[in-house]
Design brief:
3 helices; Photosynthetic Reaction Center, Chain H, domain 2; alpha+beta
Amino acid sequence: MAKNTALRYNQKMKSREILDKKVVCEDSAIGEVKEVIMDPAQWKVTHLEVKLNREAAEFVLGTRKGGIRNLLAVSAIGNVDEKVNLKVKKGQLHIYLKAPKP
């Protein structure tokens, strides 16, 4: 697979290939992928755990502290190439992010 080619639905990706990729929303990095979360009952990936940068944490969560991890619903993902590109607007991020359960 070419590095600059976006993944197609019929292609496969190992979880380790997505870890530490930058997550981008409207051409701005909001953080990076730290974990892949799946529903074991359905064997389906449901969320990516994203370590938010300071700007995204302030914009979405209203906190000035970066490094906060949140779960990002996979329904927000547009395509994946050298980064995870979101198909949602920054103003919609709060809909797709939730704090992980302890």
